[in-house]
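Q: I have two molecules that I believe assemble together. Could you output structure tokens for the complex as a whole instead of separate predictions?
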Amino acid sequence: MKKTTIVTIGSVLVIVPLFLLAISINGNKAEQKTITAAAHAAQTKGDIVPQIKKFESRSSEWGKYYQRQYDSYRQTRKSDKITDMLIDYPALVVMWAGYGFAKDYNAPRGHYYIVEDNINTLRTGGPVDAATGPMPTACWTCKSPDVPRLIDKIGELDYFTGKWARHGSEIANPVGCADCHDNETMRLTITRDFLKRGLDAEGSLKAKDATHQDLRSLVCAQCHSEYYFKKTKWTDKNGKEQTAGVVTFPWDNGFSAEAMEKYYDDRSFKDWTHKVSKTPMLKAQHPGYEMYKTGVHGLNNVACADCHMPYVREGGVKYSSHNVGSPLDHMANTCLNCHSEEEKAFKDRVARKLERKTELNKTAMDVIAKAHLEAGKAWELGATEAEMKDILQDIRHAQWRWDYSIASHGSFFHAPEETLRILGSSINIGQEARVKLRAVLAKYNAGDFAAPDFSTKEKAQAVVGLPYQKLVDEKMAFLNGLRKEWIEQQKAKGLYDPKAWEDMKFNTSYAPAETK
Amino acid sequence: MKKTTIVTIGSVLVIVPLFLLAISINGNKAEQKTITAAAHAAQTKGDIVPQIKKFESRSSEWGKYYQRQYDSYRQTRKSDKITDMLIDYPALVVMWAGYGFAKDYNAPRGHYYIVEDNINTLRTGGPVDAATGPMPTACWTCKSPDVPRLIDKIGELDYFTGKWARHGSEIANPVGCADCHDNETMRLTITRDFLKRGLDAEGSLKAKDATHQDLRSLVCAQCHSEYYFKKTKWTDKNGKEQTAGVVTFPWDNGFSAEAMEKYYDDRSFKDWTHKVSKTPMLKAQHPGYEMYKTGVHGLNNVACADCHMPYVREGGVKYSSHNVGSPLDHMANTCLNCHSEEEKAFKDRVARKLERKTELNKTAMDVIAKAHLEAGKAWELGATEAEMKDILQDIRHAQWRWDYSIASHGSFFHAPEETLRILGSSINIGQEARVKLRAVLAKYNAGDFAAPDFSTKEKAQAVVGLPYQKLVDEKMAFLNGLRKEWIEQQKAKGLYDPKAWEDMKFNTSYAPAETK
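A: Yes, here they are, computed for all two components at once.
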């Protein structure tokens, strides 16, 4: 045969199967619905026209039209384990003495439990009416789609004024559809203005310039970011001066631990005064977005949703899973989309990252807890403000940096290098405080002072003088009283969504076994 | 037209250019020589049959047959900058007080300079004959292909016996071809038995099981690994008992900083006793291979040579560059082979890795240097062995870990997480020593002792009492005396390779300007 004949025959052998394959693919495509963030348009081409009210906080109402997303969202209820971090790391009790987290701190469960856990934690106390309890209204802000609804209704400054219990009858639904989606277009949308203000202050990505891919992280960043409650004076409609505690992102100098530390120092801001060491303290609140931006995934603009809300297939339908959790639980849809690795080897590497963080984390906690107790001893022996000033500043910075580096979920994975760097810096500053403290203690004849034992949660809570049973009793009274009233009020207002509470079981670290 | 007709015409339009392209590629291939580690076979098919003696230490002899590799190897002479690390980091002088590195320590230059720099450094002193000078023979071991030649000639234990100056007339050539290649097959080969023994003791990769890809890292690991000089008794041919200092890799418990620390502790081994703090010290010696194994490149079996000796093209010829240096200097042939990134963005990320390491590195150096000086003060005031025991153990461990994490070249890149973890641990242990020291100092009425200023190389060398000018004078006398004799002897023995010294200029951190 001539060469050209061979080529022609060969080409037919190659092309025909390719052609048949193409027909087959096209056939599949016709059947397949791809449900993405732009699903609204597709849905409205069918028989069902979604009717979702603006600020509809009941996710089950959205679920009527976006059933797969809703079903997957409800799977977050399977992440229901209570892990008492104060048992695992008793040093935390010492580090947070005088602050809510020393009372009760569990590892977070699924989004489904976010309101229930906020109501049950000892941190939010046992209010007896709208004006009592330890926490301000701001503590609801990241928990519920009722928050943007309420802010729209009464205004942001009014929302941020008063005690946590004031909004108990309004906050009825856990984080859900309305926190991230526009009710008409289903597009991702920022529902918390403080994120927009934070982004604009930081400057590298103005809120108005956010792309769809940016928003696939920014809707998460509304809550998974560092914030504080900024005291803001305002005048209500009756002409009365009020003070709001407005959730504010301290991003003016940048996202780094040092940039935010400077922000707070420049404003002499403190979250609380430490009960033992008298240090003006900062509490870092999950700076997840900021940490993620420094890691390899963030630098490559891999969005939160790419790994935590991966596309999944059910039959011919593809949609973004709303069962937000660890990507390692379903690697075929997450990590392995980009990484060609053996699943086992991959998990081992991630485990090693966690081990490294845990090592330095434990060291930092031990150092800082000891520094607090040694400072407490120094005060007790008569140390002066002048002697203690630098020491307290060191303790403040050491604990801030430690907290920044570990408070954000998954920092060990999102930004392992930044996490370890900051922990190293925290350890150093905490130990600097201890070197200085040793000299002060020696001056007061206590150079050999050894901090009391804080090796269990109970011992640590005794060391810092925490009235644990009283807190539990107050909480139980609240749960059996005011909290039940709230639910009735929510039902009367049409806010209560039975689906959001369907499988809820009372479950905490402190409840007596028979009530669980 | 019918569908089948369209397909046939279309297929010809696609297939014919593909066919022509295939012919063109085949044509190129015929012209192209791929010179790899198996190049020997290809070479011998030509006119030239390589005639390279076993243990030929003169690389120019190999270069007669492997000209491109040799030319690229000689490019390492362009990495000729002298960077005095003791000027950049004066704390090093304090940390190494009583040890050679406090005298003189420059950042390494290219392989071309490795023997010259070993001869010029103040660390190797100013011997006046074969039996004088501060260093043992082992200090040549990683510098020259004359070492395996000499070991073959006189035996390993004899080689490792005596003073450094003993082998001066034998070590004539810098690291070169014979360090890594078999003279007959050109295959990669381990020429240092201590690596084989180390691998077998560690156990995860037995030396006999090493693949070609493994060897592309292991030939480097012969030198870029942690080692110590193990005292080994033997009897010479005259029946006289001798003690060799055999280069030994402390890998029995594993590659990690902690595993080797335990190895040394279990043997009560020390490299020297610190002049100021009296601590039994360890000097980490570039554990580059060990660190690399913990990083993402090592875990993915990317070999040293993949990045440091990339394949390059010259005309139609492709070969492995032997200009070992930073992959960032020619990213198109290295990083960008695997990573699809903008070169600028990539370099920025690497720079950030270096910044993180530098931050914790500086902190650790400051902490440890102060601990030494504070311990020195405590001894001076009369502290007892019992009071100091734990403190010295902390200082030993802190400095070992610091040194392990930064002594290996490029650890900040090869294993950034492991580097930062170990630095964090080093800082913590160093500060623990300082907390304890503060109590001891206070006991001797020096609770407010401040370490003397060590902020410049000169100040630091004065603090630790280093007779700098005397060391320089001795070195210059050696260079103008014994060293010149060595060169004449090397020439007489046929070891001297003029090409290996062609562009050599005397260049050190200490020489007076007029001699440079």
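A: One point stands out. Chain A has 23 helices and seven strands.
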